[in-house]
Design a protein that fits this description.
The protein contains 14 helices and 18 strands. The chain is α/β, with parallel strands linked by helices. The protein has four domains: 212 residues, Nucleotidyltransferase, domain 5 (2-Layer Sandwich); 145 residues, Nucleotidyltransferase, domain 5 (2-Layer Sandwich), CATH 3.30.420; 74 residues, no CATH class; 117 residues, no CATH class. The strands form four sheets. Strands 8-4-1-2-3-14 form a six-stranded mixed β-sheet, sandwiched between helices. Strands 11-10-9-12-13 form a five-stranded mixed β-sheet, with helices on both faces. The radius of gyration is 52 Å and the shape is elongated. It starts with 6 loop residues before the first strand and ends in a 5-residue tail after the last strand. 35% of the residues are buried.
Length: 582
């Protein structure tokens, strides 16, 4: 037999965290287990209280044995926004655009900063009046709450508390036809929900809440919040006023008057909200009142509102049509039923039996849903890839068989070609020596032509008759190719351009004479400057403008000779290889 579906519902209040486990069935919804944890301290001091929420949810999940289960939870009316807006007749393709426009006008935050959803109310066929309920919650607050829950449970969907309790009422009181007001008094605010047939209107008021009553008691008696909370729970009641006698205990009487004064402020806000509902929404005046929430447990709260509103008042029972399992203490559940409305409403949404469907999606849940939505496509893609791989494997196996056949044929061809290769290699080896000798001869021919071109280039740069060259010596490093060392200043210049390879001619040593005349030294200098432009020599390393004539060559300036010697080294741009003498 298949296991029944389990729905875990979680209500996050300002002073109490409650959790219930439900199972839907053919006979309706059943409450299997429930529990709650009170949050210590003044809720006004820390609205989110993430660490306390995380600890409370972990304790409840362990107590109810649902750790790791999907959970639907509600955020309080104070921390959510619920607006009801009338719409013009809608076309099917216009709903989302019109509602989004209305949301931008009514939600007091940019839409990209909130999680929001809507539900259409009334005649949605386009022939009558249509209203839309727009719910929203700040995304950063929602994500913070979701993070606190995620360590123990898997957040599945989020609802606003007023919507959840409205769904619980519609399910349990389908027989109520007169206009009704549901007053849900929480710790920090109260939800006022007006129900008239299919019509609904809700408003959250911060005029009064359980924590505000506790603070008023603390102020009256000059104590701290925790002590005032204990006094409220132990001795708190609503003073009936008028002809009723006060309690005999003076402190209890004082507490009852503080509570009555606080609830009187709530009554004033109820009157204002009712007038607004009737004037702006066209609603009918309530004829019946239900009380819900923890503060509704105060003794004589029912009688107080009957007196003030002059209407019949009763405590809301969300378990009126919801069965309870034997695991639930029936007496306790009956006493606390008016505090379980949000849990029942969340369970009804999970079972698909709610009247108003609102889904406020946290960022983490939105991402998980996106992955879930993409999963079928990812699976199809994976199957397609596996199919392609399988086809590739089949093709490879077949190709491998054909390849082996071809390799067997090629093996015979290879052996035949191997014989030819060995014969060609033998001929090639014999040609290598001839090629080497031919290269030597070719180099010698090129070498002879090279020096003719070099000498021709130098000769073309001797423009006067005051300078002539007496000696050309090819250099290999600092020595001539004949192995003789170069003396004088040429030796130092040659060393500057010397190559490591002694079989490479990398320079040219020149010695000459110039006549003792005014133009002789100048022509030597002009020759050296002109050689800078030669294609054969590289004089870039010489600073010819400053001290080149002292380092590159020597000029003899004695006056007792007819001609004077000079010498310098010309580094070659392209060194020439040669065969050294053996």
């Amino acid at each position: 037999m298949a296991a029944k579906k389990t729905i875990v519902a979680l209500n996050i209040g300002a002073q109490k965290i409650s959790m219930g486990v439900f199972t839907p069935g053919s006979s309706g919804l059943q409450l299997r287990r429930y529990s709650s944890v009170d949050l210590p301290g003044d809720p006004a001091g820390d609205a989110a209280r993430p660490s306390q929420i995380q600890s409370a949810v972990a304790d409840l999940a362990a107590t109810l044995k649902v750790k790791g289960s999907p959970v639907r939870y509600a955020v309080s009316g104070k921390n959510s926004f619920l607006r009801f807006v009338k719409l013009p007749p809608l076309g099917g393709d216009q709903v989302d655009q019109i509602v989004e426009f209305e949301a931008q006008q009514n939600v007091p935050f940019p839409l990209d900063e909130v999680a929001w959803d809507y539900h259409l109310i009334g005649d949605t066929e386009g022939t009558g009046e249509v209203e839309v309920a727009i719910a929203a919650v700040k995304r950063d607050y929602l994500d913070e709450i979701t993070d606190s829950i995620s360590s123990s449970l898997q957040p599945e969907s989020v609802d606003a508390a007023p919507v959840a309790i409205y769904n619980a009422f519609r399910h349990n009181y389908a027989d109520v036809v007169e206009p009704t007001l549901l007053i849900d008094i929480g710790a920090r605010s109260a939800n006022l929900i007006y129900i008239d047939g299919d019509k609904v209107f809700a408003r959250n008021t911060t005029a009064i809440g359980g924590a505000a009553i506790t603070q008023a008691i603390a102020k009256e008696f000059g104590g701290e919040f925790p002590l005032a909370e204990q006094r409220k729970l132990a001795d708190g009641l609503v003073n009936l006023g008028g002809g009723y006698e006060d309690p005999e205990d003076p402190e209890v009487a004082a507490i009852s008057k503080v509570i009555r004064n606080s609830l009187t402020r709530l009554h004033a806000d109820i009157v204002r909200t009712t007038n607004q509902y009737r004037g702006q929404q066209g609603g009918a005046a309530p004829q019946r009142v239900f009380l819900a929430g923890g503060t509704a447990s105060l003794p004589y709260a029912k009688e107080f509102f009957e007196e003030k509103l002059s209407l019949p008042v009763e405590h809301f029972n969300p378990l009126r049509t919801v069965a309870t399992s034997p695991e639930v203490n029936a007496e306790q559940a009956g006493a606390e039923a008016h505090t379980l409305g949000e849990l029942v409403g969340l369970a009804l949404t999970g079972a698909g039996a709610s009247s108003m469907n609102i889904d406020l999606v946290p960022t983490a849940v939105e991402r998980a849903r996106d992955v879930q939505m993409r999963r079928p496509y990812l699976i199809l893609s994976a199957v397609a890839i596996l199919g392609i791989l399988a086809a590739g494997v089949v093709h490879f196996v077949r190709g491998n068989a054909v390849l082996n056949e071809k390799l067997a044929d090629l093996k015979e061809v290879r052996e035949d070609l191997g014989n030819w290769d060995r014969q060609i290699s033998a001929v090639y080896d014999s040609l290598k020596d001839d090629r080497a000798r031919g290269e030597d001869l070719s180099s010698a021919v090129e070498f002879r032509s090279f020096w003719l071109d070099v000498l021709s280039d130098i000769n073309s740069r001797l423009t006067g008759d005051s300078v002539w060259i007496t000696e050309f010596t090819p250099l290999a490093g600092t020595s001539s190719v004949t192995g003789e060392a170069i003396d004088s200043v040429g030796n130092s210049i040659a060393a500057k351009y010397a190559k490591k390879d002694s079989a490479v001619m990398d320079g040219l040593f020149i010695r000459g004479l110039y006549r003792d005349s005014a133009s002789g030294p100048a022509e030597v200098r002009a020759l050296l400057d002109s050689l800078k432009e030669s294609d054969y020599f590289d004089l870039s390393g010489l600073d010819l403008d400053r001290d080149a004539y002292e380092t590159a060559f020597t000029l003899n300036s004695k006056k007792d000779k007819w001609a004077f010697p000079f010498e310098f080294v010309l580094p070659l741009k392209q060194p020439v290889e040669f065969l050294p003498a053996k």
